[in-house]
From TrEMBL:
The lineage of its organism: Bacteria, Candidatus Wildermuthiibacteriota. This is Uncharacterized protein. It comes from Candidatus Wildermuthbacteria bacterium RIFCSPHIGHO2_02_FULL_47_17. It comes from the Bacteria.
């Protein structure tokens, strides 16, 4: 199992018996768009679907073309049903990156959103 999280701390990868945990560094001004969840006494932050998608594309610049997006093997039907294009655009405006906007546009075009 491999889990990736974003953090405002330094990028780090930790390998344990149950899996690999990657922590990717994000500028504090981009650390938003999550809910605080408490489960069994543990509190953690979970990003909205839209924020998770934008973070992923921001942190993985190699995902640039439609073939790269296809290779991610997203659940396309779920994304078509759940992904809010207006929320994506709102989040992308904070990142203020034309390259990111282009890559996310390729995703939304691919999904026909």
């Amino acid at each position: 199992m491999r889990v990736t999280s974003v953090t405002t701390n330094k990028t780090l990868s930790v390998e344990t018996k149950i899996g690999i945990f990657d922590y990717k560094s994000l500028d504090p001004r981009l650390f938003f768009g999550y809910q605080i969840i408490t489960n069994d006494g543990t509190t953690y932050k979970i990003a909205s679907l839209e924020k998770a998608i934008v973070d992923y594309f921001y942190l993985n610049s190699q995902v640039a073309e439609v073939d790269d997006i296809r290779g991610l093997r997203f659940n396309e039907e779920l994304l078509k049903e759940k992904l809010n294009r207006l929320e994506l655009e709102k989040i992308m405006s904070v990142f203020d990156s034309e390259t990111l906007n282009t890559r996310i546009s390729r995703l939304t075009d691919y999904l026909q959103l």
